[in-house]
């Protein structure tokens, strides 16, 4: 009977510990970094202006215009802050 009581108490402790671990992991993964403002430094040519910004999945799409009036779209990775791609309207695509 004493062994049975020990097993019941031990299993109860394991259930509580597992539930606490599960709740902690869920809060950590769902919470993210709330309240922290990210800073991003882009190396853009002088005179380039950011016309608009919009979200595109886990990236940001920045519509840029240079001093000559040419536009391009720069995609920036939201996690790393690094450029992830670029669209230049009217540019030719190299073929193989």
Mind explaining what this structure looks like?
This protein is of the alpha+beta class. The protein folds into two domains: 1-30; 49-87, no CATH class. The chain has one helix at 2-31; strands at 49-56, 59-65, 71-77, 83-87. It has a four-stranded antiparallel β-sheet with strand order 1-2-3-4, with no helix packed on it. Strand 3 (71-77) and strand 4 (83-87) form a beta hairpin.
Summarize it.
Helices cover 31% and strands 28% of the residues.
Write out key terms for the chains shown:
96 residues, alpha+beta, 2 domains, 4-stranded antiparallel beta sheet, 4 strands
Shape: rod-shaped
Instruction: Please work out how many helical segments DSSP would assign.
Output: 1
Number of domains: 2
Strand content range: 25-35%
Indicate the percent of residues in helices.
25-40%
Major beta-sheet overview: 4 strands, antiparallel
The SSE order reads: HEEEE
- The total of beta strands comes to 4
Rg (CA only): 26 Å
> Which parts are unreliable, with pLDDT below 50 for 5 consecutive residues or more?
none
Strand line-up of the largest beta sheet? 1-2-3-4
- Terminal CA distance reads 79 Å
- The average pLDDT value, as a whole number, equals 84
Q: Which structural class should the secondary elements be placed in?
A: alpha+beta
List the helices and strands and how they pair.
Blueprint (H helix, E strand, L loop, with lengths): L1 H30 L17 E8 L2 E7 L5 E7 L5 E5 L9
Antiparallel strand pairs: 1-2, 2-3, 3-4
